[in-house]
Every structure is written in C-alpha cells, then in structure tokens.
Amino acid sequence: MTVSEMINKLGLTVFGGENGLHRPIAGGYVSDLLSDVMGNASEGDVWITLQTHKNVMAVASLKEVAAVILVKGLKPDADTLAQSQKEGIPLLGTTLETFEVAGQLYEFLKK
What's the topology of domain 3-109? Predict the structure, then answer.
C-alpha cells in the first residue's frame, strides 16, 4: 500500500509533503516521544502522533518514515509544515483518536 492509497482508505487530510505520496508503507509506529521513535521506528513506517512541532519532521526524516499522521484534529505548526514540504514526507491529519486510526491502519496493512 502507498501513502496515497492509505489516505483514501482512512479519509485523511493532507497538510504537506505531497511529493512523498507515492511512498510504500512497510508498517506503523505509534508514539509521542521523539526519543522512542528515534530508537524504534523503522524505515517505511507510518508514524502516528499528537506532536505538532517541527522536531517531528526532523525525526521523521532521520528514520525515513513513509508519512506522519497527526490525530485528534490537531494541525501542524507552520515550521512543521514547511519542513514536511522540504523533506517530501507527507504530513497528514485525522480527527480520530490514536487508537482508532492505528487500528484501521493495522487492518488495512494485514490484508
């Protein structure tokens, strides 16, 4: 599944990083601790978080995640959005809670 396909299936909002919508998804990772993501997320994961500051995109780039999903209707800071565009890493949003979007992503990926 690609990021673009996931967006359609989950009804996500695209905030930025449209150049990366073709990226393949290898899995998912849920955490709000940047150090945890740095130590444990894998390349190609979709990172689900409620963090909205620009350090999110620095970690996303370092770990080469496929995309970042912001939950609970949260919006990215201007710096975060600019970094998403620069890195080409899709920054996405949903009004769903973390538990809900993670469950839906899991169901789509296990098929």
Answer: 3.40.1390
| pLDDT tens per residue, range 21-53 | 999 999 999 999 999 999 999 999 999 999 999
The structure's pTM equals 0.97
Cα 59 from Cα 84, distance rounded (Å) = 11
- Spell out the residues 6+ positions from residue 78 whose beta carbon is closer than 8 angstroms to its own: none
Cα separation, 44 vs 26, in Å, equals 5
In angstroms, the CA 23 to CA 104 distance is: 19
Domain residue ranges in the chain:
3-109
Whole-Å CA distances, 101 to 9, 19, 69, 87, 93: 11, 23, 9, 24, 10
Return all residues near 50 (Cβ < 8 A) that are at least 6 apart: 32, 70, 71, 72, 74, 98
The Cα angle at residue 14 between residues 4 and 60, in degrees rounded to 5: 80
Tell me the C-alpha distance between 67 and 61, whole Å.
Answer: 10
